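Exercise 7b. Backbone tokens:
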């Protein structure tokens, strides 16, 4: 095994996998068929970051890197573009959108940089994006999309002034959802639940908290605590469905204490 490979060697391996006599599965892949893997690998990188494991992160970043390499090989075969074109486009963009680093522009802080970045993007796109909300991918997870949409709206002044106003909006939407629930109309309940989630996403943005990240971490905590409860009941020979709510609640609180002690 070679202790270190170059990027060109990586591309060579990918081309060989796609070539006649290579790997049938790799050869069959298209841009469309690989979409799911791009998303999966991204989330696995995020999981490795949460674990704070450099070794795991290194491996998952490699799996993620494979995706643009794979797409570049497919595009190269079709005569569309090469990996060098991708790198050149990226470098040009980074230089162009950081005139305070590669030019004479002066900025005071990161907020000013974000604002300038958006101005440069708008000049680059011209009339391609007529709406202030344009440019948010349709396939983003809903909470993340809500965060991005509200962020773009805020840049043109469509926003609250203080976080307590956003919190009040959350409570207002919760009250409206409660009314819909009491009314028993499923369509209205769905509408109002969406309004609650969108308001919470806005509150997260206002407090500089990513709602998608917050929910993902909560889900991870839930899974770990649930697994702890399962294991405890299994050690007692008690199926979870036979445990009382009081027993489940006691074990759940114990799982939380164990979690906190492991963090501290």
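Sequence design result:
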């Amino acid at each position: 095994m070679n202790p270190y490979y170059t990027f060109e060697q990586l591309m060579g391996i990918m081309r060989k996998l796609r070539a006649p006599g290579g790997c049938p599965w790799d050869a069959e892949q298209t841009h469309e068929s690989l979409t799911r893997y791009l998303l999966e690998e991204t989330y696995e990188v995020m999981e490795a970051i949460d674990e704070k494991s450099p070794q795991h992160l290194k491996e998952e970043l490699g799996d993620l890197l494979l995706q643009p390499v794979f797409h570049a090989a497919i595009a190269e075969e079709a005569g569309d573009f090469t990996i060098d074109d991708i790198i050149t486009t990226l470098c040009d963009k980074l230089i162009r959108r950081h005139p305070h680093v590669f030019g004479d522009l002066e900025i005071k802080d990161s907020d000013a940089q974000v604002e300038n970045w958006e101005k440069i993007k708008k000049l680059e796109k011209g009339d391609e994006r007529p709406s202030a909300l344009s440019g948010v991918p349709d396939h983003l997870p809903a909470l993340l999309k809500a965060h991005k949409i509200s962020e773009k709206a805020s840049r043109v002044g469509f926003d609250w002034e203080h976080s307590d106003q956003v919190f009040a909006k959350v409570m207002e939407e919760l009250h409206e959802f409660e009314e819909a629930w009491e009314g028993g109309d499923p369509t209205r309940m769905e509408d109002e639940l969406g309004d609650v989630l969108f308001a919470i996403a806005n509150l997260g943005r206002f407090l500089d908290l990513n709602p998608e990240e917050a929910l993902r971490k909560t889900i991870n905590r839930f899974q770990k605590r649930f697994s702890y409860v399962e294991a405890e009941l299994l050690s007692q020979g008690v199926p979870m469905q036979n445990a009382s709510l009081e027993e489940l609640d006691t074990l759940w609180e114990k799982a939380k204490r164990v979690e906190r002690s492991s963090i501290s």
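Instructor comment: The chain has four domains: 7-95, 97-128, 142-209, 213-263. The mean pLDDT is 92.
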